[in-house]
Amino acid sequence: QVIPGHEARSVESLCWAAGDRLFGAGLGGDITEYDLSGLSAARGVDGGGGPIWSMVANSTGTQLAIGCEDGSVKIFHVVPGGIQFERNLDRRKGRVLCLSWRPSDTHIVAGSIDFFRVIDVASGQTVQRIMVNHQVEKAKRECVVWAIAFLSGGTVVSADSFGRVQFWDWERGTLAESHTVSTSAALSLAVSEKEDSIIVGTSTGATYQLQLLPVKLGGQEKRWVRTKPFQFHSHDVRAVAHSPTALISGGLDAQLVIRPLMEKMQKKGYDAVLRKFTFPHRRLVSCARKARMLLFQFSQYLELWRLGSTEETGKDGEVLPLCQMPEHLLQLKSKGPEHIYCSCVSPCGTWVGYSTASRFQLYRVRCDGDGVSLRKV
After folding, report:
1. DSSP conformation class of 50
2. Are 72 and 85 in contact (CB under 8 A)?
3. pLDDT averaged over consecutive 10-residue blocks of the chain (377 residues)?
4. Contacts of 265 (CB under 8 A, 6+ apart)
């Protein structure tokens, strides 16, 4: 299923709440609930703190916490038919880039630039503020805390722009362990349900797994150990998820990769195979075969091109010299903020149609000698 995009609705974070209700938030500053049967935005509420960088639901799915540009963390209550603003938590300077609830829902940890803080939900006050850069001698560049997780034992895990995954004792404010997983930024992290495995996504396209293993065989003391990296992406890995049987990562290369954890697999089958899904699954280029034209679909406009031609012949796969170059015939801009959902050009090349979530447009194209005219039908 695809929920069509919208100019004013960038999606920075998504989360499920109250069972099967899907909420999204982004730099437009609104919290949007999606209609999963109509595949559209059902309703939106202004977050009241400028662009929203992060949003997470508590363990019961009854409350949403959002982290805003103005440094505020706000709590919204999920009610039938929407959400209601509940209260502001302690506000500090610096945009809130990532959030995580403690599994017991008593505290929220909020990551910003150069520091993160732990907030007591009942009082709304910051009870701990930890600088992530104090142990780096004269750090000249700022350290962005891109992802954060609160474990049930009280440990806070942070992933930052220096490529580090760090484990903190938040009550004492001390660093317990630090792992430099990458020379570039660590952008995302996800923790398994049993909290014995963590997946980290980086800006080089690599994903890493950290596992909590005993130091000595059969011993009680355990340490986090980094396993080998997996290079399945070519760009930033902005989103990761940890299922009971697989590690899932999504990158800016528009690929979703599911890597099974082989030790969790009982038998061979579809679930035990590495799966890569490339997006989009819909056709963004359509061909007018008779007229030798191609129509390219972008989010807010269409482009119509006439293919070049050659007088040479050759084998399949060979590049032939062109006697006529490809020609850009027209660019058709969509009016309104909705993104184009689908488009098509007729085989004869004289009709172009496209639709958004709410309307359909049909145009007549005429090519007279050198000029191209377009008439809305």
Report:
1. S
2. no
3. 84 90 92 91 88 94 93 93 90 91 93 92 91 67 92 92 92 89 92 92 93 86 87 93 93 92 79 84 89 93 92 89 90 90 93 92 88 89
4. 245, 271, 272
What CATH number has the domain spanning 13-278?
A: 2.130.10.10
- The strand pair at 82-88 and 73-79 is best described as antiparallel
Among 289, 285, 286, 230, residue whose Cα is nearest residue 261: 230
> pLDDT (tens digit, 9 = 90+) per residue, 122-180?
999 999 998 988 655 555 788 999 999 999 888 999 999 999 999 999 888 889 989 99
161: three-class secondary structure by DSSP:
coil
Cα 149 to chain centroid distance, Å, stands at 17
Q: Is 96 helix (H, G, I), strand (E, B) or coil?
A: coil
- pTM exceeds 0.85: no
Q: What phi, psi does 111 have (nearest 5°)?
A: -95, 135
DSSP string for residues in 217-282: TT-S-EEEEE---EE--SS-EEEEEE-SSEEEEEETTSEEEEEE-GGG-SS-SGGGS-EEEES--S
What's the pLDDT tens digit per position in 346-376?
Answer: 999 999 999 998 899 999 999 887 788 899 9
Cross-strand partners of 279: none
Task: Identify the residue whose tokens are 């930033």.
Answer: 236
Where do the structural domains in the chain lie, given as residue ranges?
A: 13-278, 285-376
What does the alpha-carbon distance between residue 338 and residue 359 come to, in Å, rounded to a whole number? Answer: 10
Say if residues 233 and 255 touch (Cβ distance below 8 Å): yes
Alpha helix (H) residue ranges in the chain: none
Please spell the DSSP secondary structure of 105-145, one letter per residue.
SSEEEEE-BSEEEEEETTT--EEEEEESSTTSTT--S--BE
For the purposes of burial, counting CB atoms within 10 Å of the CB of 340, is it exposed (0-12), middle (13-18) or buried (19 or more)?
buried
